[in-house]
TrEMBL record:
This is YbhB/YbcL family Raf kinase inhibitor-like protein. It holds the Pfam family PBP. Residues 21-32 have a biased composition (Basic and acidic residues). SUPFAM superfamilies: PEBP-like. Belongs to the UPF0098 family. It comes from the Bacteria. It comes from Phytoactinopolyspora alkaliphila. Transmembrane segments: none annotated. NCBIfam families: YbhB/YbcL family Raf kinase inhibitor-like protein. Residues 1-37 are annotated as: Disordered. CDD domains: PEBP_bact_arch.
Amino acid sequence: MPLNIKDLTISSPDIGPDEGLNDRHAKKHDNSPPRLRISGVPEGTIELAIICHDPDAPLPHGFTHWALFGIPADVTEIGPDADSLYRTGRNGFGEPGYGGPQPPAGHGPHRYYFWVYALDREVEGTPTREDFLDRYGDAVIEQNRVVGVYES
């Protein structure tokens, strides 16, 4: 299926494009995920998935802060209670659910990509970010992201 990049949008009232994330979203503070708003879900979407990834982490594959699956296609807002409503994969801390920003001190600002994926089939289980991309990359109808920045 060809990738469509025109309809699906994700935004957040808590962060703007390339703007700073508040301390309440950081792991060492409240560890509360930002609210996310989703619109323009393409026809044929069976399920949505959310992945928060830090490509600036000093690790070969960056760092996964959140993997959320089983989100119905008609959901328009993901709130701080998302971990209790949907299936959570393990984050880079080895824990299920949201694990907020925690860049190494002195490493500078890190970008946090909150990706939404519209999928044409259901995700089974709670894969890691890497497994999700390997196993479900061909099921992505459309994807988009909003980016927040955080520095320790």
